[in-house]
Amino acid sequence: MKIQRLSASNFKFYSPQGKVVLVDAWLTGDPFWPKSEKTSEKLREIDVLAITHAHFDHAAGIDEIARQNEKVSIIAQYEFAFSLLGRGIKNVIPTSYGGTVDVLGIKFSAVSAFHTSSIMDAEGNSHIVGTPMGYVIEFEDKRKVYASGDTGLTADMKFVVGDYYQPDISLLPATGGPNMEPEQAAYAAHATGCRIAIPFHDFPRNVSDAADPQGYAEFVKGDPFSALDSYKRIDRFMEALRTKYPHIKGVYIPIGGEVDV
Hints:
Layout: E1 2-5, E2 11-14, E3 20-23, H1 40-44, E4 48-50, H2 56-59, H3 62-68, E5 73-77, H4 78-86, E6 92-95, E7 100-103, E8 106-112, E9 118-120, E10 126-128, E11 133-138, E12 144-147, H5 156-165, E13 169-173, H6 182-192, E14 196-200, H7 213-221, H8 230-244, E15 249-250, E16 258-260
Parallel strand pairs: 3-4, 4-5, 5-6, 12-13, 13-14, 14-15
Antiparallel strand pairs: 1-2, 1-16, 2-3, 7-8, 8-11, 9-10, 11-12
Helix pairs in contact: 5-6, 6-8
C-alpha cells in the first residue's frame, strides 16, 4: 500500500485493490500541495475523501474536489456532513463516534479526537461546525490505519483505538501548538499499539521548499506556531520513539513524498 503526503496534514492512500482514499484536503489556497497533484486528472482519481474536522487546513478543498470529481464519496462528522449537503455537495456520508462506514470495501470507523471544528466566515468570525474525529481505516487486506486528525492525547487512543481496533499504522500530529507535543505523540503511538508511526502537522524547513514559496511566506507571517521550526519537533518525536518505544518504527514522509508499507 502506498501512502502519499500532500500537505501539512493531508494524506492519500492507494489501497491494495487500487482504490484511492484521501484523508483531509486543504488544497484550495494551500501553498504546500504539490502542483502535479492539483490537476483534474489527479483529483478525479480520488474515490473517498474522509474529513476529520472543518478547519481550513483540513477541509478547504472539499468544494474543489467535488466540482471536479462527481463520483467521490465524502465522509464527515454528522453536523458537518449536513452543512456540506446544505451547500450543494453530493455523495456526503454522515457518521460519528462508534460508527463504521463501508465504502468500496474499505471500512472507516469514527473515533474521538480532542480538538475543535470550525469555519471562518467572510467577516472573520469563527463558527463551530460539528465535532472533530479521527478514523481507523481498514483496507481490503485487513490492514488498519489510524488517522487521528488534529488531536490532543486521549484515553481513547489506548482503550478504543489500541485495544479494540488494533491499528498497524498510526498517523499522529506531533508538533505541539493546538496538538500533541512530540513526546505525547510518541506515547500515543505506543498507546495505539501500532507497528509504524507517521508524524504530521509540520511544514517545510525553508520557504523556498514549498510548492508555492510566496504563499508559504504569507502563511508564516500569520502563523502563531512557528511553522519554520516545526521540523525540530518532528526530530523530538522520532527521538522519543527511538529511546522510549523502539518497537515502533517511525516513518517520516515529507510533504510531496510517499512510502510503500
